[in-house]
Amino acid sequence: MNTPVSVLLFGITRDLTGQSALSVPVGEGARVCDLLDQLYQAYPPLAGIKSLLVAVNGEYAETDQVLGSKDEIALIPPVSGG
Amino acid sequence: MITLTTDPIDVTAALQYLQSEQAGALDLFLGVVRDNTQDRPVDRLEYEAYDRMAISEMQKIADQAHERWPILRYAIIHRKGVLGTGEIAVLIGVATAHRADAFEACRYIIDTIKQTVPIWKKEVFTDGEVWVNAHP
């Protein structure tokens, strides 16, 4: 039973995927690490990024955090503000 | 005061906001677009942010600074969009009673922003472009 989650993309992740948002069909009870695995499979160039964190509802998430279909999920490539 | 803006940063307005009767020290840090990176001439920088999270992460940093130093007032203004050389990308202002606290808090805020706030910049050269820090 797959539920799609919506993932926002910024910076290099948007450039590499060509999208600013993706709908990713993840399994029931999928965690942040499962989502990342799926994204790396679908978009191999993502593996070339130095680090890739995930934010859920505007907060940095641990890799074992479970995702829900209503969550606002974002990929956070290495930041470079300032 | 925490702001994410596409408008040019108004340093004078920020200074006025920071001034108070009790403030004996007012530290202002400006991050500016320079004309080169590792001797490669830079044409412009393109900044983008995950707005809601950038604001909340900057607020966390300001709150942490508030806990560590006796800050009277602070201003954190970060620019988004396309910036040419010489333009101010970020302003950090801290007002305290004494200078040591202002220096330390100001440095802590900018250093931590660079580590945790979801803002990204792309360096655009005459012959290519690079997302800063993205690759090993």
Notes on the protein architecture:
The complex is a heterodimer of chains A (82) and B (136). With 82 residues, chain A is of the alpha+beta class. Chain A has a single domain, classed as Beta-grasp domain (Ubiquitin-like (UB roll), Roll). Helix content of chain A is 22%, strand content 29%. Chain A has helices spanning 11-17, 32-42; strands at 2-8, 21-27, 53-56, 59-60, 73-76. Chain A has a five-stranded mixed beta sheet, with helices on one face. The longest helix of chain A is centred in the middle third of the chain and has 11 residues, at 32-42. Chain A is globular, with a radius of gyration of 12 Å. By secondary structure, chain B is α+β, with helices and mostly antiparallel strands. Chain B has one domain (2-31, 50-116): Aldehyde Oxidoreductase, domain 3 (Alpha-Beta Complex), CATH 3.90.1170.40. Chain B is built from three helices and nine strands. Chain B has helices at 11-18, 51-68, 99-116, and strands at 2-5, 25-32, 36-37, 40-49, 71-79, 81-84, 88-96, 119-125, 128-131. In chain B, the strands form two sheets. In chain B, strands 3, 4, 6, 8 and 9 form a five-stranded antiparallel beta sheet that branches. Chain B has a four-stranded mixed beta sheet with strand order 1-5-7-2, sandwiched between helices. The N and C termini of chain B lie far apart (34 Å). Chains A and B meet through helix 1 of A and strand 4, helix 2, helix 3 and strand 8 of B. Chain B: Belongs to the MoaE family. Chain B: It holds the Pfam family MoaE. Chain B: It catalyses: 2 [molybdopterin-synthase sulfur-carrier protein]-C-terminal-Gly-aminoethanethioate + cyclic pyranopterin phosphate + H2O = molybdopterin + 2 [molybdopterin-synthase sulfur-carrier protein]-C-terminal Gly-Gly + 2 H(+). Chain B: Its EC number is 2.8.1.12. Chain B: This is Molybdopterin synthase catalytic subunit. Chain A: GO terms for molecular function: nucleotide binding.
